[in-house]
Amino acid sequence: MKDIKETYRYERYQAPYEESRWAEPEEIMADTVPIEIDKPPYQTAGIPLLCDGRVAYVDHQDHHTLLFGATGSKKSRLFVMPMIQMMANAGESYVVTDPKGELYQQTAGTAKANGFKVLALNFRDFTRSHRWNPLQIPYELYQNGQKDDAIGMLNDLLASISADSMERTKDIFWIQQANSLALALLLILFETGRPEEINMGSFVKMCGEYGKPINSNKLYEIASYINPESIAGMNLAGVIISAEKTKDSIMSSLHAMIRIFAIQKKLITMMAGNDFDMRAIGREKTAVYVMIPDEKSTYHFLATLFIKQCYETMIQEAQLTPDIRLSRRVNFVLDEFANIPAIPDMDAMITAARSRNMRFFLVVQSFHQLEKLYGENARTLTSNCENWIYLNSKEFDHLTEISNLCGNVYTTGGQIRPLIAPSQLLHLSKKKGEALILAARHYPLLTEMPDISDYAFAYAKAPELPENGEKVHVAMFDLNMLASELESGMQEELFYEEEEKIPEEYRTLNKDEALDLAAARLQDLIRLLEDTEMPYDDDDVPFTE
Length: 545
Description:
Elements: H1 11-14, H2 25-30, E1 33-36, E2 47-51, E3 55-59, E4 64-68, H3 75-90, E5 93-98, H4 102-113, E6 117-122, H5 136-143, H6 147-168, H7 173-192, H8 200-210, H9 213-223, H10 231-240, H11 244-262, H12 265-270, E7 286-291, H13 300-319, E8 330-334, H14 346-353, E9 358-364, H15 367-374, H16 377-383, E10 385-390, H17 396-406, E11 408-410, E12 416-418, H18 422-425, E13 434-438, E14 445-448, H19 479-488, H20 504-507, H21 511-530
Parallel strand pairs: 4-9, 4-10, 5-7, 5-8, 6-7, 8-9
Antiparallel strand pairs: 1-3, 2-3, 10-13, 11-12, 13-14
Helix pairs in contact: 3-4, 5-6, 6-7, 6-11, 6-13, 7-8, 7-10, 7-11, 8-11, 9-19, 14-16
Membrane topology: Multi-pass membrane protein
Pfam families: T4SS-DNA_transf
Keywords: Cell membrane, Membrane, Transmembrane, Transmembrane helix
């Protein structure tokens, strides 16, 4: 055993200046795993740090990776495609954002040949896609008594749907109120809808029907049967007691949020069912390709929503294991990461993922792009990535930061200069596949990476995309029928625990009196919990289209 004094080493940090140097290939090899490309299956996979096309040395550890490269710098061909091929040959599950569909064509065949369940969520063409119902997992959680987790997922869904509206307005009050109403409607759907009615079509229909005067009154009637102290009751009452002009503004915001679903019936059909069990991604070999248009951002929020929901589901699955780790590693390979809307709590996600057997590979065009999207949290994301891979950039601040991280050296004349200057970083050879890699705890590595076409992979043809273009009946929830069933007594009051019941004073009141009493109790509850006034007085809130 070492003497305690032998563990105290400060000499090399004592000088005011410590010279840097380039990493030797042998140093990288010592901390990585060699993969013989033409001899699958592989024991592990990861980002390649050294490769000649025949043998790749990959970072097999639970390290996150940040890959920088301007458009056309061959990010996909040098790193992303080879890495996905290795994952497919190693049996590691992965979720990939695929803006052009190229990753699917290049790698899905290998995954299929290795026994993977291959899924394509095609937001370019809804008729050629596997189906995914974003309400299914939260609904199952809700029915299993995990209501807090279910509501958390619903809030994530609403945050994704309303993200664009949030960016376009200076007054987020209306959108917050619209989200409150939407959450109440979703909880009503979960509480009373049949399993086949739990889909985005039902939600959109409920939102649309509430905007009609006759159905708006139906919702008021339903509210009188809802526990005013429940989450649904509080969210609903806050809208119902508002002045008419306030309700109109809230409805305008709600309709703007759901418009993309209302005008795209094919999207509703695609999201009306599930062709896979999301929970199985962390147990069985699964490859998910999230295809999004790169020429427009209309549907990018759906990629954000899927990634967030998949991650949360993996966290829940990991919690069920003895060591709180997924039995099969799940890799999130997020190409064009900064071109999809910000993922809520991404900084916390990337921090917690590693210990659950999940890795993130963030592929971005520039650091500025990342900062613009995530603000101060961008630093948390980058600092949690042990591997930084740089290909090309024209951002001087970014070039300077990379240069500074590489350190300095002495010239023959005793002067200090950067190991690699910003101007040199600007001119790394695309033809040679030059990349600068800052790997965990290593000196900088300047290497040449082969193109995907130079690897000795055994390729297989990608499976044909599924066809779901035929007309499919989507079961829809009926708000009017619920109101009738509540009024007739066929449906019990909503959101009461078994030991609870409708307060006696409600039973002797007519509808308007019951609503007034519910509103009064809600105000009392808000004052009790928050001891603050409502953010706006109804008479002071301006009407907006």
